[in-house]
Write a structure and sequence with these properties.
It is built from 20 helices and 19 strands. The protein has a nine-stranded mixed β-sheet with strand order 5-6-7-2-1-8-9-12-13, sandwiched between helices. Strands 16-15-14-17-18-19 form a six-stranded parallel β-sheet, with helices on both faces. A two-stranded antiparallel sheet has the order 3-4. The two termini are 27 Å apart. A hairpin with a 7-residue loop joins strand 6 and strand 7. It has 544 residues and is an alpha/beta fold. It has two domains: 273 residues, Glycogen Phosphorylase B (Rossmann fold, 3-Layer(aba) Sandwich); 229 residues, Glycogen Phosphorylase B (Rossmann fold, 3-Layer(aba) Sandwich), CATH 3.40.50. The mean pLDDT is 96. The structure holds pyridoxal-5'-phosphate.
């Protein structure tokens, strides 16, 4: 059977640190899919936006506070497709130029760009996740409506439209509009469109899901020819982007097994929603796994290579921060977006416990991450952590402007990878997969992907027992100290053989299971290809 052709729509794509059109995990996932698709020859193309100013370049000022800057980026590796599409926004036609990116061993990625002279409003595609709601809607119109028009003009056949998170849902509205223009009723056009769409949901907190008022959507022109009533049928009132995603798709997926349970419960009240299944994320091995770690056959070879990677990291940190870490000291890494639920400073909850370790030089901590420009609570956490680096300049490090380069370096150079989100708010988490593949041992709360993989004291460590409750900060900090003092530190300093065995198991068990290649196979088997149930329904329809 011929594989369905897939257009993968996403607000951001993380392909390389020098291509700043991504912010975090969502974009890295999208980038890794295009790379794995290219490796294996899957007919998947990407549709996204060429962000001129990208996501914040976040630096730390002299007072230890994060600040945001937005240089204008110029990318000379993009190919001009000579295709331009128009989208009517706020009553005016806005043109978007279509670029093609194939520079990172990725399958074709098409990028929409409004930064052209004929537009009165050139920087709609300026900042990723920046500015106001009104601007966000305009950006989503470019991605959704413009994306469908671009595919048509480029002459690209598509069997399945995959919406990665809900930002592209207006593409579904455009597909409905096209069919109605050809004379179909709204109901028929909607049900036919659903057969073409699959949807990946991410945010496991209802409040974190994007909602827009109809006044604003209408003012922007996002109805795209549909009536108020039709829009409400799809997205509810106010319009919930995730509800719309669930009602526009034939099938939806959550991004880990635990997130599958959370998402099913969270959206069970939505009538007419597509069924949510769980397909755990994976990462692109070629990008994230050091080949020599993957292929090391003996324990000594593994350790030697690990120490090489650790030394490279130490060298790079010295270049950036002027601090030289010690290679023989246990080194814990923590790098992620500084959203408050990730609790980046949890390890400092009880200073009396953690400070002696730092004073004695038994522990080194490396942090990196950006807070969203408007997230003052997240920025306060960056500030607090930065203070710790001033108190312990020899062994607490903060690397500013977290990006793919830093992510790569830390997930192969540290000894331990720490993750302590408030359960169940981490939908998947992929940095831990990168670490696992490099023998960097995960020390993590049982959230996201980790409960599927963790065998405590065999391939990493679990913090606590999956506790959920109001007082989880206190409980989780206690559990973190317990495993750190009773397991991680003694094993590192007193039982190197066991440490090596754990590294081996971590690498051996994760390489395929958390690969983007396995994830794409799951997408094909469980989402893209017509399912037995779809075929039965189609046969019934024909029999009518
Ligand atoms: C892998 C990666 C992420 C996602 O990691 P999480 O564990 O989901 O936080 C975010 N940013 C960068 C730069 C990454 O490499």
């Amino acid at each position: 059977m011929k594989l369905p052709k897939v257009a993968y729509f996403c607000m951001e794509f993380g392909l390389h640190e020098d291509f700043n059109i991504y912010s975090g995990g969502l974009g890295i996932l999208a980038g890794d899919i295009l790379k794995a698709a290219k490796d294996k020859g899957y007919p998947i193309i990407g549709m996204g936006i060429l962000w001129r100013q990208g996501y914040t370049k976040q630096l730390i000022d002299a007072n230890g506070r994060p600040y945001d800057c937005y240089p204008e980026y110029v990318y000379d590796f993009l190919k001009d497709t000579n295709v331009t599409v128009k989208v009517n926004i706020k009553g005016r036609d806005v043109a978007a130029k279509v670029w093609l990116c194939e520079s990172f061993n990725n399958s074709p990625l098409y990028l929409l760009d409004t930064n052209i002279p004929e537009n009165p409003d050139r920087l709609i595609t300026g900042q990723l996740y920046g500015w106001f709601e009104e601007q966000r809607i305009a950006q989503e119109m470019i991605l959704g409506i413009g994306g469908i028009r671009a595919l048509k003009k480029l002459g690209i056949d598509v069997d399945v439209y995959h919406f990665n998170d809900s930002h592209p849902i207006l593409a579904g509205i455009e597909l409905i509009r096209e069919k109605m223009q050809d004379g179909m009723s709204f109901e028929k056009a909607w049900s036919e469109t659903r057969k073409q769409i699959v949807f990946t949901t991410h945010t496991p907190v209802e409040a974190g899901n994007e909602v827009h008022t109809y006044d604003l959507l209408k003012y922007a022109g996002a109805f795209n020819g549909l009536t108020d009533e039709q829009m409400v049928q799809i997205g509810g009132e106010p319009l919930s982007m995730t509800v719309a995603g669930l009602r526009l798709s034939k099938k939806a997926n959550a991004v880990s097994q635990l997130h599958g349970q959370t998402a099913k419960k969270m959206w069970e009240h939505v009538e007419g929603a597509s069924g949510i299944i769980a397909i755990t994320n994976g990462v692109h091995n070629g990008t994230w796994q050091d080949q020599r770690m993957a292929n090391a056959t003996s324990g000594s070879e593994l350790w030697e290579r690990h120490m090489e990677l650790k030394r490279e990291m130490i060298e790079e940190i010295y270049k950036r921060n002027g601090v030289r870490l010690k290679e023989e000291v246990l080194t814990i890494g923590f790098a992620r977006r500084f959203a408050p639920y990730k609790r980046s400073n949890l390890i400092f909850t009880n200073k009396e416990l953690i400070e002696p370790l730092l004073k004695e030089g038994k522990l080194q901590l490396i942090f990196s991450g950006k807070a969203h420009p408007n997230d003052l609570a997240g920025k306060k956490i960056v500030e607090d952590l930065y203070k710790m680096t001033e108190l312990y300049p020899e062994n607490v490090i903060f690397l500013q402007n977290y990006d793919i380069k830093i992510g790569k370096m830390l997930t192969r150079g540290c000894d331990v990878w720490l993750n302590n989100p408030i359960r169940p708010m981490e939908a998947s988490g992929t940095s831990g997969m990168k670490a696992a593949m490099n023998g960097v041992l995960n020390l993590s709360i049982l959230d996201g992907w980790w409960p599927e993989f963790c065998i405590h004291r065999v391939n990493g460590w679990q913090i606590g027992d999956g506790y959920e409750g109001e007082d989880c900060d206190e409980k989780d900090a206690e559990s973190l100290y317990k495993v750190l003092f009773e397991e991680v530190i003694p094993t590192y300093y007193e039982n190197r053989q066991r440490w090596l065995n754990m590294m081996k198991d971590s690498i051996r068990m994760s390489g395929r299971r958390f690969s983007a290649e396995r994830m794409i196979e799951d997408y094909y088997n469980l989402m893209y290809q017509p399912q037995a149930s779809d075929l039965a329904a189609a046969a019934m329809e024909q029999g009518d």
